[in-house]
Amino acid sequence: MKNTKKNILDTSRMLFNKFGYSQVTIRMIAQKLNISSGNLNYHYKKREDILKALYFEMVAVFDKRVQQLDTTIITLKKIKEDATSSMIRMVDYRFFWTDLYYLLSINDSIRTHFEQVRQDRENGYHFVFKTLENNQLLQPENYPNERQFLIKRMIDFSNTWLYASHLYRENITDSKYVETQATILLSILFPYLTEAGKQEFLELMEEPFGRFY
Question: How does residue 176 score in pLDDT terms, banded at 50, 70 and 90?
């Protein structure tokens, strides 16, 4: 039964990514799996149950990373590695991020968790930035709420880069392209770094701000 449920989720994710959540039916998923709709309904009674399972499957890795922040050695290299890893996972579940507003509007438990995750991400950014400041890699705030505004920009970019990519690019699964997006995210932080921080940032890049693909 465990393998059947995994196959349903993996197949659903593939179809959602290809056609979009709204265009995929239970019948389409069952046909792709070569099983009856009744067999599929035994495991997931409706399509929204599959959506919910895929969402929490996706965010399990994100949640774990946030929970482990206080035991993580924070460096700019580590931040870039984590950003790249997160963006790769977002690509694996890209149907969610390219239709974010609609999918949040149709499921209360997903929306509630997503709102909590946003607060956890803000707290995580504050922790990371305070650590970078203590390590003399990040400048102190120049005006009230400067750090909060910076966090908002970085979270908003993280949430929308996949949707924006679909507007002008067909292939968003290329690893080099995803790494470039992680570089763009990290570059938002660049003006706020100390000279030591900027030097460490530049040493991470083959070219100072990456290449666009």
Answer: confident
Quote the pLDDT of residue 128. 92
| Contact present, 54 and 61 (Cβ < 8 Å) | no
pTM for the model: 0.88
Among candidate residues 114, 94, 103, 13, the one with its CA nearest the CA of residue 5: 13
pLDDT recorded at residue 196: 96
Model confidence pLDDT, tens digit, residues 40-50 = 999 999 999 99
- Domain residue ranges of the chain, discontinuous segments joined by +: 1-45, 52-203
CATH fold of 1-45, please?
A: Arc Repressor Mutant, subunit A (1.10.10)
Tell me which of 31-35, 72-76, 204-208 is least confident: 204-208
Q: In the CATH hierarchy, which top-level class contains the domain 52-203?
A: mainly alpha
CA 207 from centre of chain: 24
